[in-house]
Amino acid sequence: MKIEQIYTGCLAQGAYYVESEGEVAIIDPLREVEPYIKRAKEDGAQIKYILETHFHADFVSGHLTLSKETGAPIIYGPLANPSFEAIIAKDGQEFKLGKLTLKVLHTPGHTMESSTFLLKDENGKDHAIFSGDTLFLGDVGRPDLAQKAADMTKEQLAGTLYDSLRSKIMPLADDVIVYPAHGAGSACGKNMMKETVDTLGNQKKMNYALRANMTREEFIEEVTDGLLPPPQYFPLNVKMNKEGYDDINEVLERGTQALDPEAFEVAANDTGAVVLDVRHQGDFAKGHVPRSIFIGLGGSFAPWVGALIADVKQPILLIAPEGKEEETITRLSRVGFDGTLGYLKGGIEAWKNAGKEVDTVESIDAETFKQRLEQKIPVFDVRKEPEFAAEHVEDAHLAPLDYLNDHLAEFPSEDTFYVHCAGGYRSMIAASILKSRGIHNLVDIAGGFKAIKEAGIPVTDYVCPTTLK
Predict the structure, then answer these.
(1) Pairwise CA distance, residues 125 & 105, whole Å
(2) Is the CA virtual torsion 107, 109, 112, 115 positive or negative?
(3) Closest Cα to residue 179, out of 370, 14, 348, 359?
(4) How do residues 108-151 score in pLDDT, each as one tens digit?
(5) Is 68 exposed, middle or buried (0-12, 13-18, 19+ CB in 10 A)?
(6) 448 Rama class: left (phi>0) / alpha (psi -120 to 50) / beta
(7) Residues whose CB is less than 8 angstroms from the CB of residue 322 and which lie 6 or more positions away in sequence, other chains included
(8) Predicted structure pTM score
(9) Rounded-to-integer distance, Cα 194 and Cα 411, Å
């Protein structure tokens, strides 16, 4: 028996490769499927099943391409209704994999088709569960993503999830290993642990949602409390996972068109494409194409693209570090953004050499910021509400990057204001968005809140009641 977790940090997503006696099951694969096929060939094995725990909202799965390439059937649990051929398993149905058995446990609640796959060893002993978004480490899947499709409230879905956990998962032995679909950083839950594998017994101790004496009402209240609105691209990814999508090779062929500065500019003007700059934030600050949006590859790239660009049909033109173009297009496709039209050949240097206009972002270090704070200046913190509530610069205004457009009217129209995040990545994204909206009177604080604290700038955890909205 071989189980491998293939974890993708920028998506906080876990896919799984399970092999026994030359037969392989792939669970919740990513969009690019060649690594799974290559791995099976290296093992002298054949991919027999492709299992999907549910219709994913935060990424586009590779199930269709992998099935096309290998001939392996796609398996969902009960109530799934995809537009393509698939096995819709019954609750309790079993599938043999070499000497192993995969048993379908229908665990609705996150979505109504959500299922957990229970792996039994060659002796029939329960060994592990692949829990999808039903059970995370430290949390459970949010119950508000499938309300419209299920014609249920989030409270009703949460109650269904409570029943699923207690009837299907909690009765399993404590030594059963939990392999979830996501870890810390995913928008599919609230309080996930940084670990990506654990035992069910430890989760019964550590996970608030698995408290033995927890009532259904308590569960519903706690699971639905504090849920932020899901990213706008989530329903679009569900639609693609349910109805189909273009082959990743077609997406790459379209997107890897090298455009000289003239052709790049014409394409931007003619198509209304977003010019997406994925270089390091420091490089973007020093010089970029006017009105381009910065979302660097070095951070949680794909989720931020999904949250801030939102429309997966939006045409995109890329400015990327040399050699990173294909990686960028692949990572965009993981969250359904298949509309890349090409990239700027030669990068920003070619743009400058062609005599094209270049914009910059003023960025200062924390020590310079400290000096300027001696006079009262407007400071905007684009971190998340919990980060701000824990500690922030005195008198700073909160304008979370996720909801920056809701705060545009709050930024000064003429006076210079200062923007920071935790480390400098999100604040440069915010700066690029503000500048694309015609707001240029801003200064970025390099190094963010970490550098601010190291510089000895006064911070507080006091939150004015009118600050957090």
Answers:
(1) 15
(2) negative
(3) 14
(4) 999 999 999 999 999 999 999 999 999 999 999 999 998 888 89
(5) exposed
(6) left
(7) 347
(8) 0.90
(9) 35
